[in-house]
Structures are given as structure tokens and as C-alpha cells.
């Protein structure tokens, strides 16, 4: 019985405890959430939001855990709308008893955890920081606020998956940290403690647009002795990794009011040459654990002194290796006789007195030896650079000795013997008299192949000569597929481009016997081969635009005997290409094509989000069929290929947008005009649905016999349509005026104004005309007939309005008949007067009217004649 009572009591206690663990979060959740809101409002001048605050006793029992979900801190002016901080979870760990404290007694937080967070720090050009958002109460700034809802009594904290972005707009400096993991444990409530830490991160650093560190992996396990009374931090047991390079630190760091005092030393734990390979990121160096090495490599450094606004610590950092070698286990060749002697020195504590010395770098692969040396002084001022490069590298051996990840192996012999000495101020001001520069670089037998390239690239020879003012391209001969290119030229500010962010200026003469575009540009299976004719094409081209590099400022004199683009072959292409400010300017370009010649000038600009172009083309004696089949733009402007046979002279101006992927015109954006003259041209109406339909409707014109020689026309294109200005045609004694428009969507809307002599109206009408004298027939006007062409080129519709025409012709014939009768009445009256007969009226009143039905008869015969002319052939 007693045993059962004990079990019941224990069971009841456990059940009660579980109920308390479940119920307590609900009882205190409101209180905790109010405390979080109170803390935020009291301390932060920013827009703060979070989804909810959870309280749990299960996660770390017997401790309580408060979790703030999806917290975000958004700046107010002057960084309005910028996100300073956001985190998926922020956990605060404390004793359960802290929940039962009174309102005015702070809860002591023992642990903090932050996961999946982003920190965005910005310093603007005025030096204002976006993280300065703390509310300062001047009345209490000198006193500790004992009434704060929370106080820190930390013994552990964890930061997991944190990303940090820091941008200083004033100094043009930026760094990013990603995949940051950091934890620390120790009695942080004490003033003197040992903090046990572990840190992992990936760091990138950029200054003045130059990236000095690119995703460098950092790792540090360290016990740091902390004396908060003196703000002194001492490195105790520690292991550090920079990429795969192991380091150990000794010494201390002390925080001062106006800076920091450093007394640190560091070095590699041993002298294995693997340490050198460890400097290289793993993605490039691969796994170095099984690499066979000989010789040594040492990193030793001392940093001592003050870091303030005007001073830096003194530096003595050395990297050294002598007679070393390495060979990867799965590669056939080794890199041998490696010598490295490099130093970073500052002996005064002044930034500008820092200098970098590369006294010697040397290595050998097979029989090829490569040597380099350099020194850089006045780093923060007018930097002085002195460097030499001398050696030979067989590129085929590089991938045999080092795990370079290439899709295809390299071949070629690179030779270099270059010496340079310059200061940055002379480079920036183009003061070439202060630059000492000499030597040569050559590359022969180079071959490179990649899946991203259309065809393998072969450089038979490339030779550069360096002098103070320019780099001269003595020769370049390359092949790819069936394409050959040779070039010579100069680069006028090579150092300004390399070291001072100036544009790369140059002049080149480029020649080719055969240039096949598909050898150079790989076809994109996903890219549309034809340009789109809607505004959607303009918007689509916004993504991933093709850009002309902004740094290029060069002039190219081009001469190609043949250029092949798909099925289009251009012969004797000559002209000038000027590339500047993301714009390509074509000047005095000409080519033989389509059995004639095209000369053109214009420009293509990719500076805007959507590229545009402006072209003027002069076409002389082009074969119409070939030209309007081979050029998509001409085909869209005038779909006459196969319909007209002959030659054309034309001047075309074109402006519009380009598809940023295919660089082909977006037809809906096209504006411009075309002035054209046809030469020795004939028509094949059977090749055009439009002309075939018109032939069926018009009885008296044989389009194949229409004389188009020297016909001139003016076309204007805008808003997706081609407007044809009025022009005259003549078929025997029938005059025709043509005008109207068609769209790039193949829609048509044309008017043909015929002036048809009455003799074409048929036998019945000729019978009526026989009753008139020749002079009266000549007085009849030609019949104006309007014919409309609507629909599309593939489904044309021919319309006429014959009712007005019939009425007009009928009235003309009747009027001539009336005049004839009137003339007869006058003659009879004259005869009567001559015979002294009774006077009769001569005002026409006594002239008999037409017999009833005569007018209707004339009208019917005219109408039938017109229907025969403009009706469907039987």
C-alpha cells in the first residue's frame, strides 16, 4: 500500500511538473513580450518589427528560453528604409526563477543565440553611420539603469549562419563576411576572465574598386584572456587557419580612448612547404594532405605599436622559402627549385612608410625557369613600383604540375623579359617621361579549347614590346575554325588601365582573309534567331544585357576579304570601328554583297539598359531578290523577294532598339525611311498572293508587262508600320497612283488610284461612244477608279467603289449626247433663218429630250463595263 501511495505521489508530482512546464509559457508569454517591446522602444531609434515572442521550458530545462521570431530593424533618416539587421531567431536563455521577478526587477540573461541573420553596416559620404540608433537619456547617461527589463549575466553565446556587409562610402572601402559561425563561453559577468572561442567565416575585402581578399576562409580556436578593467585582451592557447595555412598568435591587444595598442607576434607552427600551398584557396589548390613536398616555408610576423587616426603599428612580416618543391600525387610533373623571399615592413609607424619587398620569386618546371622581383613603397601616397619579370613557361606543363581546373589542356610557350619602374601619380597624369618601361612578352603555339567557345582558339604568334608611353602589338596571328585574323597596333595607356582605372586606349589594324562569325560566337540554342516585333521584346531584353565594356577606348581599322554570317557572305569589308563610352561607332564601312555594294555609317550603344542603334546605309545596284531575302530588316520593310527581279539603288536610315541577347533589331521600335530606285526590274505576280489576287480582279493590266524601270519610291517606317508615300505607275495609257502602308505583322492597307480611259469599258459602251464624234469622245475624262488592298500579304482583300464611278461616267456620256443634240438644233435653226421661215426658240426648249430609258441604258452598260474590268476573271 505504501509503495502504491509513493508511486501515486511521484506520478502526481511529475504530472504536476509537466503541467507547470506546459502552462508556464502561456502564463508568462504576455509579460515577456511586453518586456521585449519595452526594451526595444526604450533603447532603439528605428523601426523594429518581429512576428512573435515564444517562451519555452523544454529546450534547455531547467533554464527558460525566450525566442524572438523574425526580428528586423529598419533605419530611419538619413538611411530611411535600409535594413540594418534581421534574424530568423534570437534566443535568450535564463533561469526559470527570473520569470517570477517583479516588474521593476530586471531579468538576468545567461545566454544568447542568434541564427540566420544579416547585418548591414553603412557609413555614408558625410561619415554618418547607420548603426548609431541607440536612444541616449542624458539624465541617466552617467548612471546604471537598474530598472531595465533585462540585464546581461552571460556565460555563453552562439552566432550561427551570419552574413555581414560593411560599406564605407567615404573611404571607398567594403568588406563582406558570410557563413559566420562564432561561439564564446566564460563568465562574462566578471571583469577578469578567460573567454573560450571558436570562429569560422569567409571574408572578402575591397578598397577603391580593387578586391584584395576574395572569399578567404578564416578559422580560429582561441582562449582569450580578458581584463575589462584595463581593456586588455591576451591570446592564450589558439589555432588559426587562413585558407589552409595554419598560424599561431601570441601577444595582446589593448583598447585605448583614441585607438588600440598592439603587441602581437604570429607564425606557422612548423616549416613544411605545405604551408605555402595552404595560402592558396582550396578551390584552386585542391586537397594538399597527400602532396609530396621538400624544403621549407615560413611565415613570421610582428605587429607592435599604436593604431590611431595618424599611426599604425610597426610591421615586420616575412614569407620565406628556399630550394623547395612540390608534386601532387596524381600529376606527372613537379615544381622545383622554389625560392621565395618576401617582406612587409614598417619601421616608423607611419602608414606611408610601409613597403612591400619581393626580393625573389623563382621556380622551375622541367627545363623552364621563371624569375620575378618587385618592391612597392609609399603605399598610402604616391606609390612607387619597381618590378622585373624574366622567364619561360611551357603552358602544357602547368596543368601537369598544378591542379588547374580547365575543360581542355593548354598548349603554348610564354616568354617574358620585362622591367618597369613608375610612380602612380605619373601614371594617373600620363607623365610618360617619369615611367621606365622596357622588355618583351611573346606567346607562340598557344591553343585553348572550351565548351563555352564555338571553336578551339589557336594563337600562332603574339608579340608585345613595352616602352614608357605604350605597349606595342608587333604581331598577332590567330585562327579559330576556318577564321584567320592578323593584327598590329598599340595600347597607349596600359598602366593607367591596370593601376589607375583609366580607360584602355588603343589603335589597331585588323585583317582577315576569311572571318566566320559562327567560329567566334557560339550559337545560343535558346536565343531566338529572329527579332521580335512587339514591345515584349524590349522588356525581355532588359535581363542579362550584352554590354560593350565601358573601359574600352580604341580605334580599329578593319579589312576582311570575306565575312560569313549564317548564309550571308560579305566580300571586301573595309572601314573603321571606334569603341568608346559603351558605344561602337562605324565609319566609312563598305562591302560587296548581293551582286552590288553597301556603304554604311552608324552606331550601336549599350550604355542604356536596352541597347539602341542608328544606321545609314547606301545601297548600290543590289540584286533585289538576294538583298530582300538575306537581310531580315529589308525583308520586314518590304517583302518583295521573289516578286521583283532586278536591281535597286537605295539610301536607308534606321534607328531603334536592339535585343540585348541577339543584338538584332526590335522591329516594333524601328524608325527611319528608305529612298529607293528600281533598275531593270520585272514583276513575277505569281510569287505574291497579293499581286495574284489583284491580277484576278483587274482585267486590262498585265503586271508582268508593267514597266518599273527607274521607278522611285519613298518609304517611312515608324510605330511598327511602313508608310509608302504616293508614287506613279504607267501601264500603256492607264495611270496609277499607289500609296498606303503595311505593318511588320504583315497587315496591309493600300490605295491604288486608276485613271482608266473609257475605251476599256467594253463593246456595249463602245456602241454608245460610236454615236459621238471623235472630238466629243476626246472630251470625255478618263475614269477615276479607287481600288483598296486590305487584309494581309497572305490573305489580301481587294475592294472597289463602282457606284460613284458609274454615275460619273454615265453623266459624262449623256452630257456629250445632249451637247450633240443641242448642236443639231442650232444647225436647224440657222437653216430656217436662212430660208426666212418662222422663228423658233434656240434656248433648247424645243430640242427633244432623250427617249425614256436612255439614261438607264447608258448607266447599265457603263456599270457592266466596269465590272468586267474590276471583277473576277471568268
Automatic annotation (TrEMBL):
GO terms for biological process: regulation of protein targeting to membrane. One of its GO terms (cellular component) is plasma membrane. Residues 837-858 are annotated as: Disordered. InterPro entries: AsmA-related. This is AsmA-like C-terminal region. It comes from Myroides guanonis.
Amino acid at each position: 500500500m505504501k509503495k502504491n501511495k509513493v508511486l501515486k505521489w511521484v506520478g502526481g508530482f511529475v504530472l504536476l511538473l509537466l503541467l507547470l512546464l506546459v502552462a508556464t509559457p502561456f502564463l508568462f508569454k504576455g509579460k515577456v513580450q511586453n518586456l521585449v517591446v519595452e526594451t526595444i522602444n526604450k533603447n532603439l531609434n528605428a523601426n523594429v518589427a518581429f512576428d512573435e515572442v515564444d517562451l519555452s521550458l523544454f529546450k534547455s530545462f531547467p533554464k527558460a528560453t525566450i525566442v524572438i521570431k523574425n526580428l528586423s530593424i529598419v533605419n530611419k533618416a538619413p538611411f530611411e528604409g535600409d535594413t540594418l539587421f534581421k534574424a530568423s531567431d534570437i534566443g535568450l536563455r535564463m533561469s526559470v526563477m527570473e520569470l517570477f521577478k517583479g516588474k521593476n526587477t530586471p531579468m538576468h540573461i545567461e545566454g544568447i543565440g542568434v541564427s540566420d541573420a544579416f547585418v548591414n553596416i553603412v557609413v555614408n559620404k558625410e561619415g554618418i553611420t547607420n548603426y548609431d540608433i541607440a536612444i541616449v537619456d542624458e539624465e541617466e547617461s552617467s548612471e546604471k539603469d537598474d530598472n531595465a527589463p533585462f540585464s546581461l549575466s552571460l556565460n555563453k553565446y552562439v552566432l550561427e549562419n551570419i552574413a555581414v556587409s560593411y560599406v564605407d562610402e567615404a573611404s571607398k572601402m567594403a568588406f563582406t563576411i558570410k557563413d559566420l559561425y562564432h561561439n564564446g563561453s566564460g563568465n562574462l559577468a566578471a571583469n577578469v576572465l578567460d573567454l573560450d572561442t571558436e570562429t569560422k567565416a569567409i571574408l572578402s575585402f575591397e578598397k577603391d574598386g580593387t578586391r584584395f581578399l576574395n572569399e578567404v576562409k578564416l578559422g580560429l580556436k582561441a582562449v582569450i584572456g580578458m581584463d575589462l578593467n584595463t581593456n586588455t585582451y591576451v591570446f592564450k592557447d589558439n589555432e588559426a587557419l587562413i585558407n589552409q595555412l595554419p598560424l599561431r598568435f601570441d601577444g595582446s591587444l589593448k583598447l585605448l580612448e583614441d585607438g588600440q595598442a598592439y603587441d602581437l607576434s604570429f607564425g606557422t607552427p612548423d616549416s613544411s612547404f605545405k604551408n605555402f600551398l595552404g595560402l592558396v584557396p582550396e578551390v584552386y589548390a585542391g586537397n594538399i594532405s597527400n602532396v609530396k613536398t621538400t624544403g621549407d616555408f615560413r611565415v613570421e610576423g610582428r605587429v607592435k605599436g599604436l593604431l590611431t587616426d595618424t599611426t599604425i603599428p610597426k610591421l615586420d612580416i616575412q614569407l620565406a622559402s628556399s630550394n623547395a618543391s612540390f608534386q601532387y600525387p596524381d600529376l606527372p610533373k613537379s615544381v622545383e627549385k622554389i625560392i621565395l623571399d618576401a617582406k612587409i615592413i614598417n619601421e616608423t609607424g607611419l602608414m606611408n612608410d610601409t613597403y612591400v619587398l619581393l626580393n625573389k620569386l623563382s621556380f622551375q618546371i622541367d627545363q623552364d625557369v621563371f624569375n620575378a622581383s618587385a618592391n612597392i613603397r609609399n603605399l598610402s601616397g604616391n606609390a612607387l613600383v619597381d618590378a622585373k619579370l624574366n622567364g619561360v613557361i611551357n603552358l602544357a606543363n602547368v596543368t601537369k604540375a598544378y591542379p588547374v581546373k580547365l575543360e581542355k589542356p593548354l598548349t603554348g610557350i610564354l616568354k617574358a623579359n620585362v622591367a618597369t619602374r613608375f610612380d602612380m601619380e605619373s601614371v594617373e597624369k600620363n607623365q610618360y617621361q617619369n615611367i621606365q618601361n622596357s622588355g618583351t612578352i611573346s606567346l607562340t603555339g598557344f591553343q585553348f579549347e572550351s565548351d563555352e567557345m564555338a571553336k578551339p582558339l589557336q594563337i600562332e604568334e603574339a608579340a608585345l614590346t613595352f616602352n614608357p608611353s605604350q605597349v606595342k602589338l608587333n604581331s598577332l596571328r590567330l585562327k579559330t575554325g576556318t577564321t584567320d585574323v592578323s593584327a598590329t597596333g598599340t595600347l597607349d595607356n596600359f598602366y593607367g588601365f591596370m593601376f589607375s582605372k583609366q580607360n584602355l586606349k588603343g589603335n589597331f589594324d585588323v585583317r582577315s582573309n576569311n572571318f566566320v562569325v559562327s567560329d567566334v560566337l557560339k550559337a545560343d540554342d535558346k536565343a531566338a534567331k529572329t527579332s521580335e516585333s512587339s514591345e515584349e521584346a524590349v522588356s525581355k531584353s532588359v535581363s542579362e544585357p550584352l554590354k560593350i565594356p565601358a573601359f574600352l577606348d580604341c580605334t580599329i581599322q578593319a579589312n576582311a576579304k570575306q565575312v560569313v554570317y549564317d548564309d550571308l557572305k560579305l566580300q571586301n569589308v573595309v572601314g573603321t570601328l571606334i569603341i568608346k563610352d559603351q558605344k561602337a561607332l562605324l565609319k566609312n564601312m563598305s562591302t560587296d554583297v548581293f551582286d552590288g555594294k553597301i556603304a554604311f555609317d552608324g552606331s550601336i550603344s549599350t550604355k542604356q539598359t536596352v541597347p539602341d542603334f542608328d544606321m545609314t546605309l547606301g545601297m548600290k545596284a543590289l540584286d533585289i531578290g538576294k538583298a530582300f531575302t538575306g537581310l531580315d530588316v529589308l525583308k520586314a520593310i518590304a517583302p518583295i523577294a521573289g516578286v521583283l527581279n532586278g536591281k535597286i539603288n537605295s539610301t536607308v536610315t534606321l534607328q531603334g532598339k536592339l535585343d540585348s541577347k541577339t543584338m538584332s533589331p526590335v522591329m516594333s521600335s524601328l524608325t527611319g525611311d528608305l529612298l529607293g530606285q528600281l533598275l531593270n526590274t520585272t514583276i513575277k505576280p505569281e510569287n505574291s498572293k497579293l499581286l495574284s489576287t489583284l491580277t484576278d480582279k483587274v482585267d486590262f493590266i498585265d503586271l508582268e508587262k508593267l514597266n518599273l524601270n527607274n521607278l522611285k519610291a519613298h518609304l517611312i517606317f515608324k510605330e511598327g508600320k511602313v508608310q509608302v508615300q504616293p508614287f506613279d505607275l504607267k501601264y500603256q495609257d492607264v495611270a496609277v497612283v499607289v500609296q498606303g502602308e503595311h505593318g511588320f505583322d504583315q497587315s496591309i492597307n493600300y490605295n491604288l488610284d486608276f485613271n482608266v480611259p473609257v475605251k476599256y469599258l467594253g463593246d456595249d459602251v463602245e456602241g454608245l461612244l460610236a454615236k459621238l464624234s471623235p472630238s466629243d469622245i476626246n472630251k470625255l475624262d478618263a475614269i477615276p477608279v479607287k481600288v483598296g488592298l486590305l487584309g494581309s500579304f497572305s490573305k489580301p482583300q481587294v475592294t472597289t467603289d463602282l457606284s460613284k464611278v458609274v454615275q460619273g461616267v454615265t453623266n459624262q456620256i449623256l452630257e456629250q449626247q445632249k451637247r450633240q443634240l443641242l448642236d443639231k438644233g442650232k444647225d436647224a435653226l440657222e437653216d430656217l433663218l436662212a430660208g426666212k421661215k418662222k422663228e423658233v426658240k434656240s434656248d433648247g426648249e424645243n430640242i427633244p429630250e432623250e427617249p425614256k430609258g436612255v439614261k438607264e441604258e447608258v448607266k447599265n452598260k457603263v456599270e457592266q463595263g466596269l465590272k468586267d474590268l474590276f471583277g473576277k476573271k471568268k
